[in-house]
Amino acid sequence: MTKVLNYRKLYLELNRQRKMRGNISWNKVATRAGIAPSNMHGFTKQFEDTTNGIYKGLSVENLIKLMDWMKQTDLAPFIVDEDDPDVVVS
After folding, report:
1. For 30-63, how does the pLDDT look when each residue is reduced to its tens digit (9 = 90+)?
2. Cβ atoms within 10 Å, residue 57
């Protein structure tokens, strides 16, 4: 069985931590993580606007930076089987 990154789970955890840190804006998350706000916007918009049908993942570099911002070192909670019904294909 092939394993994939579940971007929806990653988004939900990022959003949870964003709210815990004073409900800061996504632009502030991006700035504090050291990534371009436009990359953050492209990633988060797909989960906030489900009508666009466009899914954008993250570069490995930006994924690492966001994991660091979350103080998360383990990707396991975000890895699922590719046939998981909640997987967003990027």
Report:
1. 999 999 998 888 788 777 765 544 456 788 899 9
2. 16
